[in-house]
Design brief:
The chain has one helix and twelve strands.
Length: about 160
Amino acid sequence: MIPAQRPHHPLLFVDAAAGLPPRWAQTHLRTLKFHHIGRCTLIVSAPARADPPFQSTPVPVTVVGSVGIDGSGAIEAAGVVQLMFKGKTPPHGFQICASPAPTDTLFFSDVGPGPFDNVAYFELQPGTCYTTPLGYRPPGPVSVYAENQGVTFHARMW
């Protein structure tokens, strides 16, 4: 196998008896490299593209993000599911950290409020954090649960 210079370039096989590659290949491809393999010719090429225009003045670039909103708090009632971020679904993701003290386990869910169960809720040990993956948007509001009142957590949504 003959390696191509770049994996995204098109490959074209031409019958050696037919001669030159098709007309479109001669006019639409910038460079042609011929490799003869038996009766066939392998052509490795780069698409013909114009060079980028010269820009004398830098083009301004604005990066727009979303504002981080604090959702930190404490469990208000033991054994009761509590909504975070005033019930709003984070548009771009969130982070939640369980405080190291008291040493109670915190549970959270990103599919909306509902009764606590071990399926929809994720366990967060004291002193640990969870951050949504890049590009992840939760399907519903984030809720938390703990078996004791006063368990604190730190959270941000963006």
